[in-house]
Amino acid sequence: MLTTLLAIFGSLGLFLYGMKVMSEGLQKVSGEGLRALVTNMTRNRFAGIVSGTLMTTLVQSSSATTVMIVGFVNARLLTLKQSIGMLMGANLGTTTTFWMIAFVGFKFNLSAFALPCIGIGVAMIFFRRSRVRDSGESFIGFGILLLGLNFLKDSVPDVESNPEIFQFLADWSGMGMGSVFIFMFFGIFLTIMVQSSSVAGAITLTLAAKGWIGYEDAAAIVLGENIGTTVTANIAALAGGTESKRAARAHFLFNVFGVCWMLVIFYPFINLVAWLVPGDPNVPIHMLFHLALFHSLFNLINVGILVGFVDKLTFFATKMVRDKKGQAESLDGEHLQFEAANLPQTGEINLAEAEREVRNMAELTRAMFRGFNEVYENPDVDMGPRVKELKAMEERSDRLAFDITQYLIYCTSSRLSRERLNEVTVMLRVISEMEEICDCTLNLVKLAERKYRKKRVLPTGTQEAIRNFSGPVDQFMGFYIQCLTKKVTSADIETANQLENTIDASRKKLRKEAVRRMSDPANIKSEMLYIDILNNIESIGDHSLNILKLLSQID
Question: Tell me: the pLDDT tens digits for 81-91?
Answer without folding.
Answer: 888 888 888 88
